[in-house]
Amino acid sequence: MSDILDQPRCELCGERLRFVPMHHGDGATTYSQECANKACADGPFGLLTIRQCNSDTGRAVSATKYHDTQMFTHAAYGDPSKNEANVEPVARTFMDAANREFGTSYTEYDPSPTDARDELGYDCEVRSMREQYSLKLQVTRALPSCVYQEQQSKHNLYITKSVEEVAAWLMHAIERKASRASPEIALVLDGVEAPFLGFLTDLEVSAKNQTILKRQRWHSIWVVGSAGARRLSGGTLP
Questions:
Q1: pLDDT per residue over 126-163, tens digit each?
Q2: Domain residue spans in the chain?
């Protein structure tokens, strides 16, 4: 009983905080805390902020959503990670989030051969050995290439965007991969170094894009951040 009473609680709503694993490209796993109450208030002064850093690589990112203006700010320091390096941490974060939020039991990560990914159409497969089901994942960067290029050249980045602009970025990433879509593969948008995507709700993305999302032939479409995943459209998990 004392363990439950001593568990940290959210300063905003009083709900217990839970530990959520964050997977990094170097294979390390750290843990962050998040409120278990999905209806938690938006935060003090009408804003919500996330900060994360990796002491091994020197990379750091932070993001803020201002609810009075519906604007995001995004700051990044250090060179961005390579897209291929994020496949495993993105997949493992997807597994954790699916198990936690949707009751699946994914335990195994199986990368597809690097030289055959274009031909196969997917980057990896996640499996539940206990329940004998699996899902293939195609992982792609959530943000436009120009954002990563600017960060690469300047080693830091600071941008301010509206909800509509960020939603348009996600739709562009989805349409960029449309020709590879398959009902057997889930499209996963890599937002590991774009924590502000965690503030964007599925309704804000789909409100003006329902027609486009319904045309997609993917099994499902997800945004995966540093510690969670959000489904934008598509089929249910096993």
A1: 999 888 899 999 999 998 989 888 888 988 889 898 88
A2: 44-234
Q: Three-state secondary structure along the chain? A: CHHHHHCCECCCCCCEEEEEEEECCCCCEEEEEEECCCCCCCCHHHEEEEEEEECCCCEEEEEEEECCCCEEEEEEECCCCCCHHHHHHHHHHHHHHHHHHHCCCCCEEEECCHHHHHHHCCCEEEEECCCCEEEEEEEEECCCHHHHHHHHHHCEEEEEEEHHHHHHHHHHHHHHCHHHCCCCEEEEEECCCCHHHHHCCHHHHHCCCHHHHHHCCCCEEEEECCCCEEEEEECCCC
Residue range 8-40, pLDDT digits in tens: 666 666 777 666 666 665 555 655 566 666 555
pTM across the whole model: 0.78
What is the amino acid identity at position 87?
A: V
Asked if 93 and 228 count as a contact pair (C-beta separation under 8 A), the reply is yes
